[in-house]
Amino acid sequence: MTDKANTNWWDKWDNAAKSFDLMNSGVELRFGERKREWFARAEGRTLLVAVGTGLDLQYFPQEQTVVGIDISSKMLEKAQGKLSVDRNRQLLVRADAQNLGFADNTFDSVVTSCTFCSVPEPVAGLKELRRVLKSGGKILMFEHVRSNIFWMGPMMDIMSRVSRKFGPELNRRTKENVIKAGFKLTREINIYLDMVKLYEAVNPS
Ligand SMILES: C[S@@+](CC[C@H](N)C(=O)[O-])C[C@H]1O[C@@H](n2cnc3c(N)ncnc32)[C@H](O)[C@@H]1O
């Protein structure tokens, strides 16, 4: 019998950690170079939100300071093995994107990668990222989102009812959420139909 008192909403991510690298190897093969180019736009001290098992750490130059956060300690354990040699430059911290322990204006840039399909309260999470990002700082996002293709969106709504039990939601409206959180959207690029997107937005205040 499951003891409900001992379960957390992030347990599904702890469970996913074991097979995560294998399940996501196709994403890295297909989109890895696009991510490398896109994340190269991040400058200075960078917050990598929902670092997972650390697949994205390879896309940052060794000399860049990158703080990777995630809610799942099992994901972070896997990410430890992918840190660059210089551990003063890449750090991992267990934290909830919706309630970060960092002071206001701590980071020059924020990067997300398949993050806002997964954070339970996306607008709250994005507002929290704005708080820790310096004024004028950029958020660079690689995200899958709900399609606007006429039959695809409703299908993604239905599939999300199942997918969210084990992992991400498939029908997030991330662009709208970025704007609701008070960011100024500066770029939007489709990299697979209208479902896999790159967004760049600026913290205006
Ligand atoms: C789909 S995975 C993506 C992982 C990684 N960014 C990648 O693309 O390989 C989503 C990640 O979000 C993390 N996550 C979900 N909600 C979170 C939250 N509120 N705060 C921090 N991390 C969260 C999960 O633990 C998981 O590692």
Q: Please, could you describe this protein's structure?
A:
The protein has 205 residues and is α/β, with parallel strands linked by helices. It has a single domain, classed as Rossmann fold (3-Layer(aba) Sandwich), CATH 3.40.50.150. The protein is 33% helix and 24% strand. The protein contains 7 helices and 7 strands; from the N terminus they run H-H-H-E-E-H-E-E-H-E-H-H-E-E. The chain has a 7-stranded mixed sheet with strand order 3-2-1-4-5-7-6, with helices on both faces. Strand 6 (184-192) and strand 7 form a beta hairpin. Helix 1 runs parallel beside helix 4. The radius of gyration is 16 Å and the shape is globular. Bound molecules: S-adenosylmethionine. S-adenosylmethionine binds next to strand 2. S-adenosylmethionine is lined by residues 10, 13, 24, 50, 52, 55-56, 69-72, 75, 96-98, 113-115, 118-119, 168.
